[in-house]
Design brief:
By secondary structure, this protein is α+β, with helices and mostly antiparallel strands. Helices cover 33% and strands 28% of the residues. The chain is built from nine helices and 13 strands. Helix 7 crosses helix 8. It is globular and about 55 Å long. The protein starts with a strand and ends with a helix.
């Protein structure tokens, strides 16, 4: 499929963004939707609304962000990215993020920030493995209750990711080079103990024993391949995953670790695995 990436301009395009939000999150109220008026204002005053259109001119995805400050440093806060269900296997999300990077770098801003649910494995692998983001902050129940069917019944905990747009790490990821650490993790060959492993498979995967007394340079944490399948099958189990990963991330990030990687391994029985590393993002994460 041929796609066109560009800044949005027309009322019709902004209304399509509203429709895509309803489809992507299953909102039952428009109170949670970013409306045309705010999208237009953002585009006019330093923010960014970028869309991907198919060959017939139908929008298949968009991203929305505003100017922000991170400890006094000018940044771009990427608040929302959504893709229509029919286009989610076409790489539209990655296309939007790399296009967003180009636009923001052209404005002399080299830091982008956003939050995401660390149990959403596809988003986690996109953010860390494909884009080269890093994180050292876990936020409890950031949005409280929303009207999204994806959030119902669970706390909206989020990882706060940082994308250092001109760093060596991100420049390498832009060429498809994920680095030796990611390669070793994907092959199941990295020397890092398990802080948390899953037990079972698919929608029945349960969290195993949580180890909070580890002191290795790097640690591994497994999450389910699809938290939404688990929610549909057993909400109590989904909540258990939220609670145990909350304890893991908050404990180890407070102890001086940061999140370096999340990927799907290449083993005979693939796993979705986070890699935490001791140190700081600025000193230890921006290069291989």
């Amino acid at each position: 499929m041929a796609y066109t990436l560009r800044l949005l301009e027309t009322d019709h395009e902004y209304h399509e963004c509203e429709d895509i939000q309803r489809e992507a999150w299953g909102f039952t109220s428009d109170l949670d939707i970013i409306p045309l008026t705010l999208l237009v204002t953002t585009q006019l005053h330093g923010g960014l609304v970028l869309g991907v259109l198919d060959a017939e001119g139908v929008m298949q995805g968009f991203c929305y962000g505003i100017l922000g400050l991170e400890e006094g440093r000018l940044s771009h806060c990427s608040h929302m990215l959504a893709v229509r269900k029919a286009a989610r296997s076409d790489g539209v999300g990655a296309l939007l993020k790399w296009g967003q990077r180009d636009e923001i770098l052209a404005r002399d801003i080299d830091l982008m920030l956003w939050t995401f649910d660390p149990l959403e494995s596809i988003n986690a692998c996109l953010n860390f493995h494909k884009l080269g983001c890093l994180s050292d902050e876990y936020i409890l129940d950031l949005y409280g209750e929303t009207t999204s069917e994806l959030h119902a019944g669970m706390a909206t905990d989020r990882l706060h990711v940082k994308w250092f747009l001109s760093s060596q790490r991100v420049a390498a990821h832009a060429t498809g080079d994920r680095g030796r650490i990611a390669s070793a993790l994907a092959a199941g060959e990295i020397d890092a103990p398990w802080a948390l492993e899953g037990e079972g498979f698919g929608a029945d995967m349960r969290p195993g024993v949580l180890h909070l007394d580890l002191d290795a340079p790097r640690l591994r944490c497994e999450i389910p391949p699809s938290i939404q399948d688990i929610r549909a099958n057993d909400m109590g189990l989904a909540i258990a995953w939220r609670e145990i990963t909350r304890e893991l991330f908050t404990s180890y990030l407070e102890a001086g670790y940061f999140v370096r990687e999340c990927l799907r391994t290449h083993e005979a029985s693939p796993r979705t695995v986070y890699l935490l590393e001791r140190g700081t993002i600025e000193l230890n994460g921006l290069e291989e």
